[in-house]
Amino acid sequence: MTEDEAAELAARIEQDLLAEPGVRAVYPASGGGRLREAAAKLLGADDGPARVVVRPGEVAQVEVALGVDDVRPAHETARAAQRVIRRAASVPVRIRLTVAHLDASPHEHGTTTAI
């Protein structure tokens, strides 16, 4: 897999994940990526870091962080996200998936939990 193919795969995975029931948002996979995204927004730039990271190799490495809602249990959404990623890839993949539950009404419940 070339770097261009990896970038195309990352874009396809992001699009497919956002169409999956229960997925509310796709975030940069690393803490540093989230900081760069916040800094880019503060500076008015639209081009933040990649939200889905695909590292080519014999076994491609895919990293993504999802914000999920309560449409279905978070573990079911996470499993569905893994299936989406595996279907999109034409090579074997190792997936690093971070899931955060987004509370639809934070004032009512008072907390947002991460899994």
Write the layout of secondary structure elements.
Layout: H1 3-18, E1 23-27, H2 31-42, E2 53-55, E3 60-68, H3 74-88, E4 93-101, H4 106-109
Helix pairs in contact: 1-3
Biggest sheet: strands, sense, closure?
Answer: 4 strands, mixed
Determine the CATH superfamily: Cation efflux protein, cytoplasmic domain
How many alpha or pi helices? 4
What is the CATH class name?
Answer: Alpha Beta
Characteristics of this structure?
115 residues; Alpha-Beta Plaits; four-stranded mixed β-sheet; 4 strands; 41% helix; elongated; disordered C terminus
Q: How would you summarize this macromolecular structure in one to three sentences?
A:
With about 120 residues, this protein is of the alpha+beta class.
Description of the molecule:
By secondary structure, this protein is of the alpha+beta class. It has one domain (3-109): Cation efflux protein, cytoplasmic domain (Alpha-Beta Plaits). Helices cover 41% and strands 23% of the residues. It contains four helices and four strands. The chain has helices spanning 3-18, 31-42, 74-88, 106-109; strands at 23-27, 53-55, 60-68, 93-101. Strands 1, 2, 3 and 4 form a four-stranded mixed β-sheet that branches. A hairpin with a 4-residue loop joins strand 2 and strand 3. Helix 1 (3-18) packs antiparallel against helix 3 (74-88).
